[in-house]
Amino acid sequence: MKQKTIPIDHGSFLKKTDRYLFILLFLMVSCFFTWSENVAITRGIKVVGRMGVLMGSYILYYRIIRYGAADSIKWKNVLAPLLYAGYLTLGFVSFMWSTNPGFSALQWFMTFQSLAFSAFFIKCITLLDIYFPNHTTRLYNLLGDTVFYLITIFVIGMYVDPDTFFRLTHGGEEARLGGYIMNPNELGMLAGVGIACLIFDIYRNHHKWWTVFKVLVIFYALFMTGSRSSLIGVVLIVFFHINQSKNQKLKTIIIIGVLLVLPVAVNKIILKDDGSRLEEVLSMTGRLPFWTALINEGLPREPLLGFGFMRIDYKEYFQSTHTYPGKMTHNTFMQVLMNLGFIGLTLVIFQMVFTIRGFLLEEKEKKLMLIGILIPILINSFTEFGIFGESNYGILFYQLIIMSISFQKSPFLTIRDKIHLQHKRPELSL
To answer: Any idea where the O-antigen ligase-related domain is (predicted)?
Structure first.
């Protein structure tokens, strides 16, 4: 497809499309939060809201096509989405042996819904890449801004209504940002994703000082969550980008900044000032004994196919003699092992291998972005819900990056597509 010299300005359409994409992503991520203690309101937001956003992504996709694009996208890196579909298929089949089919079905359908949203959302960006090559929409900018505005709500809320936006832990000794609205560790992971994405806006000098302000606000919120795993994730992201940069002066400044901030952050977040919780850190807040009990006592009961999608025992909670009762494993790979057995775990391991392989085949900026997003959600996956756990926005982010490596332009157009493009886009030569 060659460009002719007929000057047609698509700026207004592209700005509106970028704005709609941001609104859809912001609403989708927002629907994972518990904005009210009223169960009916929360369910309404999570079910009706998310289905509405899914419908919005579908409508926006076909709005782009009607304006001047062809529905001519084909698959690439097919094993990554195919194996993810296999994981969901096994989860669906597991309803037959699930120890709570209703709960398994609810979790499965929420995961499938976010996958469908991710597919249409990334297809919208792919159409822009193909038919509007000069567009300025970037996935990392949309994600970074979404995280910033959500985090800003929490930063303002911690001063306006601390009882709602803080969660007291350790017998009320420690207040962590998140409240009942969001688990502090999950909120910390969200902050990590935001920082990973906004770094690319700094690279391209996109509203540079405004972007730096966004990063500082998000980092402050991360500090207030007290999330150890998220702090580790952000440090890894920073050093990952330092390693990629060729600017020695920038590298030196960042390294000095990290070395100055890191001791304070480690003392405040990991050791909790006096180092009294070092034993807690070494046991990963009781997770290691819990995982040991799961492997020794729970896994032998259903080793091959598990207890059913998002189920870890015959009862609602798994509890060993020497561990706390748990409804989920606090480790996404352990979660898969318990709910879909060794067969499910093998499937998701190969799925991740082919996903990362797909990252490495992309051009540099996109490859770095996808790896940057993967780092915080993968680290979170070792201590919380994770990318294969109960429904959360970590799953959404993982699905978005899977879809980001799964679509490309089809080399063929149907006669109908050609007629459509000749009518809508006379500046294009087919």
So the answer is: 215-348
